[in-house]
Amino acid sequence: MMKKPSFFSLLHQIVRMGNGFSEWTGRWVAWLVLTMVLVIVYDVSMRSLFSIGSVLLQELQWHLFALIFLLGAAYTFKHDGHVRVDVFYQSRYMTDRKRAWVNIWGGLLLLIPYCLLIIISAWPFVYSSYQFSEGSPDPGGLPYRFILKGAIVFGFGLLLLQGIINILENFLQLFDKSNQEHS
């Protein structure tokens, strides 16, 4: 007879899959950084050496930067590289258990509602842009601006997913007695 997986082992699987997905997207976004650097070097070289400028390349630079920022937020959060007010969080009075509670409540009361607010608020904005096939208002600029605007929804969706995974990780840290086995 096959043994049913426990509640905690299912949560561990969900956490592993979610963290794996964030890791994969973060590594993919790293290639956008390289692409942006190459575009900037090329654009600056062409302007400096040959006095040839391009609206398309300038817009591509900030589009890539926006994608890096939006799509890399979940990866950054996963690796605890986000901005945090560490006055209390890193004090000697904060045990790992207290930090786990701060992470859970911070995620439930701040991160998840904020992500949902941005996703819900941005959706009509993105849809309208898609309906009108919005492109750059500048001659020679990039078309399909709705793709960049759609990255707002997608990026905050990724951050929301990683926030939920973070809450589950902290929940497991607090309540799973076999946590050392899965670490």
Automatic annotation (TrEMBL):
Residues 36-171 form the Tripartite ATP-independent periplasmic transporters DctQ component domain. It is found in: Cell inner membrane. It is a multi-pass membrane protein. Its main location: membrane. Keywords: Cell inner membrane, Cell membrane, Membrane, Transmembrane, Transmembrane helix, Transport. GO terms for cellular component: plasma membrane. It comes from the Bacteria. InterPro entries: DctQ (IPR055348), TRAP_DctQ (IPR007387). The chain crosses the membrane at residues 21-42, 62-79, 100-126, 146-168. GO terms for molecular function: transmembrane transporter activity. Part of the tripartite ATP-independent periplasmic (TRAP) transport system. The complex comprises the extracytoplasmic solute receptor protein and the two transmembrane proteins. This is TRAP transporter small permease protein. It comes from Thioflexithrix psekupsensis.
